[in-house]
Amino acid sequence: MRLLGEPPDxxxxxxxxxxANHCTWWDGFFIYVLNEAVLHRRLxxxxxxxxLRKYRFFRRLGAFGISQGHPRGVRAALSYSAGVLTEASNCxxxxxxxxxxxxxDRPLGFxxxxxxxxxxxxxxxxxLPVAMACEFLGDRRPEAFFLADRSFRLSxxxxxxMEWLERVQASQMDRLDAMITGGQKGRTxxxxxxxxxxxxxx
Length: 202
Fold this sequence. Notes:
- With 202 residues, the chain is of the alpha/beta class.
- The protein has helices at 27-39, 49-54, 71-84, 113-121, 162-181; strands at residues 2-4, 16-20, 42-48, 63-66, 90-94, 125-135, 143-147, 152-154, 187-188, 190-194, 197-200.
- It has one domain (2-200).
- Helix 3 crosses helix 4.
């Protein structure tokens, strides 16, 4: 697992909202690793309720569920998310695509929950677009790459809309793809040192 580019410059006086593309089943775990190694916040990850019921261990990583198609459940998840943002030391992770997509799929198809969360929160938050990709690069196992070098201090009133955020996220994903293609290795966050052994770097 590798971080390309510079780590984000995040103010300690505002909560963080990670907005990530959804490329694999392991994306919540990847964000957990990124948070442990780089962000150092208390992490909360929004994921589909039906998936959380199947894989309850994700709750140990700070996951909570959202029930798409059930308005009451959606409102409850959005309200809970806004509550997470009341603590500056917290980090809320969202996958606004709502379903797994390939890295080059366009448009991204973001849902609009972030707008409601920012309005409910009322204050400011650091919105951090995170681009992720998994690639086989001449090895029998894939490598996971992250790019998270730009954040935006936003509030509900100052938010420029999901179309703007989609453009920002798509640009981030394109930059990540170019870095991987260009052979950049970046900083190792976690990796295998031998059969069954892993190193976690902070």
